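Cross-check.
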Amino acid sequence: MMFESDRSGVPRAYVTADVAAVDAIGLAADWGWNLNTGQRLGILIPHRTAIEENSGLAQLDRSGEGVFATWRYSAANAKTSGPQIAYYPDLEHLLEVERRMPAGIVLVGADETHRSWVTAYSPTLLAGKPIAAVEPAIDPVVAVAVATFTDSVNSSTGLVDRRDRSKVTDGLQRLLRHGYAFTPEQLIAAALSANWQGRAAFALGALADDVLRGVRKQVRERYADGIVERWQAAASDRGREGGP
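Predicted model, tokenized:
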């Protein structure tokens, strides 16, 4: 992932699901316009009927100030690189928006399922009850393992490549055998923080879920013996240096 463009500077915000949808759209649109990008808003919705169900969306559609795309099509096919409003997406679709590095991303309908995204990017809360960070915090040894995955995974393909998937699977299995706990949420948040593409981070979480459930995986590419001990030593060094 070392050759990926830095995503940390993309402005991000969210409105939680307890805020009325029409009010949330107004806040999200104002936030996008205030970025002053000179581009129209991209609005990603689950289906076209969402426009009929939300007067705020309908107004943006009539005015031409919003360019709409549905989740049925890849978010990467959105017609504008301006600020993107992600309207009630699941986590996978939200992370697809991250792939294109638009001028800004605002999530409408945020809830606990989006905690890994909130934890990784600390987006601005526009309205509603704040989404708590992923808890517990990721184990330092697991965090070092994610850093190793980051250095070894092909940035252009993420975990699509079988060799990358095999090696990461081996690493996760070794962590489990050594007694280290982790959750898909923790790994997704850590991967996003390490600048992974959104879809690759989501794939890491799905792979972790399989490993935790004991799904049999064919592992052909492996880390060298002693890799967990090296992760432990690196985590200890980070702790002494006050690193993350």
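The domain at 12-127 is CATH 3.40.50.300 (Rossmann fold). Residues 162-177 form the longest helix (16 residues). Passed to J.P. for a second look.
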